[in-house]
């Protein structure tokens, strides 16, 4: 028992006798080298000489300077090493960063110049890193950074919540300068956009001042955010604060970019709508809202992908996963994809316009709307047909809305006992009616005695109405028909109807059923001359 007690005492003494820092220099893997470098540059374990052991091929003094500069660059950019992702393998080979596959490890994709490589069985910061670190340092820290810090008096370094007093003053100055620059840059951008508005006005009759004002403000703020991100390292915050500020600025920039691009889409769509309103095609008007929704969705998706990079998500993996998922969804919804392709084909080929009267696939009616998936057609009875665009792009469509004229053809049947003189007069009269009708094509028409029907003499009437609207066509028919009826009544011409008549030559106390026709030439000519009264 006494021996055990002595052994425990010796162990406890040996533990208390150890130095607080027993970390050894280990360069056997990327993980060990990075840990060695950063560990010995922490305030509680600070040792420049040990940290400089991660630098290869330089003097001791320069190695210390390079090791410090690497740490300062990472801190200035707010880049904190996540050791969970750093490889522990001694023989690690880089196959991700896109460079030649060899024993090397890139710490961050934002600064690919800083990476490790294996030299003589140990991992060091690469020779390229040693060469470029000074240029990187000057890019991160603007000129005068060291001078500003050296001019801060002693009390300025007093910390409050992890931030020194002079840094608080710097934040206030940044805010004041940022507000002033935002106001100035906003004025400049708005002035430039107003100059460009004259170019847009060639396509748009509407003023774009309100839209341009919405576009200039976020653009000015976006520029200020970039300037703040460039000069924020001059305040030399700790890495946690730098990381928070820079990530916040990057998120703000992405949100502003999304807003700016959405406003640009709105301006372009507004110009497009104004331009298409002056074209004959009505299908272009329907394209505007579809393009607007599509472009805005693309802008938001691109913004979300960019936002994911701020939080360290590999967008390549996301896009690859989305592609695989998109392929699976496409296979599962082939009809939807076909309809979307059909929509683009309709807008490219333009087989009809909004408002056209079309016929095809057993459906006839007026085109009211062309959507992403289907086209809405209103029939004569005012019911709505929704036809998938994939089907509509494949079937044969008779676009009656593209007709130059509306053809009208009918046959007039008159009695068999009508005298030839009246038949000729009636034909001439109908021709005259068509010639003076205000809504018929006078250059092309036919009115001829074409045949002998079962119960009537057939006169063909073939003409064309000028208006393409269905309602106007019916009104034109009405006026034409009434003029023909008035002509027939004036001439004494009767229209036949399907019947059989038994003619009896002699019958006691019965009169002959033959009609009496007036074929006087003067009367006929007078009737033909007075046809114009039907259209006055």
TrEMBL record:
Residues 412-486 form the Mechanosensitive ion channel MscS C-terminal domain. Keywords: Cell membrane, Membrane, Signal, Transmembrane, Transmembrane helix. It comes from the Bacteria. Its main location: membrane. Residues 294-334 form the Mechanosensitive ion channel transmembrane helices 2/3 domain. GO terms for molecular function: mechanosensitive monoatomic ion channel activity. Gene3D superfamilies: 1.10.287.1260, 2.30.30.60, 3.30.70.100. It is a multi-pass membrane protein. Belongs to the MscS (TC 1.A.23) family. It is found in: Cell membrane. Residues 1-17 form the signal peptide. GO terms for cellular component: plasma membrane. The chain crosses the membrane at residues 165-193, 220-239, 251-273, 294-313. This is MscS family membrane protein. InterPro entries: LSM_dom_sf, MS_channel_1st, MS_channel_C, MscS_beta-dom_sf, MscS_channel_2nd, MscS_channel_C_sf, MscS_channel_TM-2, YnaI-like. Residues 335-399 form the Mechanosensitive ion channel MscS domain. The keyword Signal applies.
């Amino acid at each position: 028992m006494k021996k055990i007690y002595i052994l425990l005492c010796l162990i406890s003494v040996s533990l208390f006798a150890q130095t607080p820092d027993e970390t050894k220099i280990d360069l056997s893997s990327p993980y060990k080298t990075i840990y060695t470098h950063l560990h010995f540059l922490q305030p509680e374990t600070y040792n420049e000489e040990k940290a400089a052991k991660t630098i290869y091929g330089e003097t001791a003094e320069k190695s210390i300077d390079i090791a410090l500069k690497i740490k300062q660059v990472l801190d200035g950019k707010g880049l904190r090493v996540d050791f969970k992702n750093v490889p522990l393998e001694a023989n690690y080979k880089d196959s991700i960063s896109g460079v030649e596959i060899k024993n090397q490890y890139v710490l961050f994709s934002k600064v690919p110049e800083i990476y490790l490589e294996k030299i003589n069985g140990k991992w060091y910061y690469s020779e390229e890193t040693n060469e470029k670190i000074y240029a990187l340092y000057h890019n991160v820290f603007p000129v005068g950074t060291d001078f500003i810090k050296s001019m801060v008096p002693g009390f300025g370094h007093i910390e409050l919540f992890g931030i020194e007093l002079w840094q608080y003053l710097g934040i206030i100055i940044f805010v004041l300068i940022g507000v002033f620059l935002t106001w100035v840059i906003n004025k400049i951008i708005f002035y430039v956009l107003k100059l460009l508005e004259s170019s847009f006005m060639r396509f748009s009759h509407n003023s774009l001042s309100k839209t341009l004002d919405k576009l200039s403000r976020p653009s000015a703020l976006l520029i200020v955010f970039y300037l703040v991100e460039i000069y924020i390292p001059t305040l030399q915050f700790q890495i946690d604060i730098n990381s928070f500020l820079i990530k916040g600025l990057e998120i703000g920039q992405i949100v502003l970019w999304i807003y700016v691009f959405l406003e640009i889409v709105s301006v372009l769509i507004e110009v497009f709508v104004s331009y298409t309103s002056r074209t004959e095609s009505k299908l272009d008007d329907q394209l505007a809202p579809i393009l607007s929704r599509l472009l805005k969705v693309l802008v938001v998706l691109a913004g979300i992908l960019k936002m994911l990079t701020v939080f360290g998500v590999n967008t390549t993996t996301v896009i690859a996963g989305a592609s695989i998922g998109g392929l699976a969804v496409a296979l599962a919804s082939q009809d939807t994809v076909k309809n979307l392709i059909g929509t683009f084909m309709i807008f490219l080929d333009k087989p009809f316009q909004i408002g056209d009267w079309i016929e095809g696939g057993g459906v006839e009616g007026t085109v009211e709307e062309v959507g992403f998936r289907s086209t809405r057609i209103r029939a004569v009875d005012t019911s709505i047909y929704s036809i998938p665009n994939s089907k509509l792009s494949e079937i044969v469509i008779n676009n009656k809305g593209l007709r130059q004229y509306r053809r009208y053809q009918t046959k007039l049947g008159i009695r068999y006992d009508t005298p030839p003189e009246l038949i000729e007069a009636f034909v001439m009269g109908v021709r005259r009616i068509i010639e003076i009708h205000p809504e018929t094509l006078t250059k092309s028409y036919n009115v001829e005695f074409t045949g002998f029907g079962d119960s009537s003499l057939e006169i063909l009437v073939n003409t064309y109405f000028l208006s393409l609207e269905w309602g106007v066509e019916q009104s034109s028919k009405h006026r034409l028909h009434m003029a023909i009826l008035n002509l027939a009544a004036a001439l004494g011409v009767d229209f036949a109807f399907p019947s059989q008549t038994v003619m009896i030559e002699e019958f006691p106390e019965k009169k002959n059923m033959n009609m009496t026709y007036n074929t006087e030439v003067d009367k006929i000519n007078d009737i033909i001359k007075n046809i114009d009264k039907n259209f006055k």
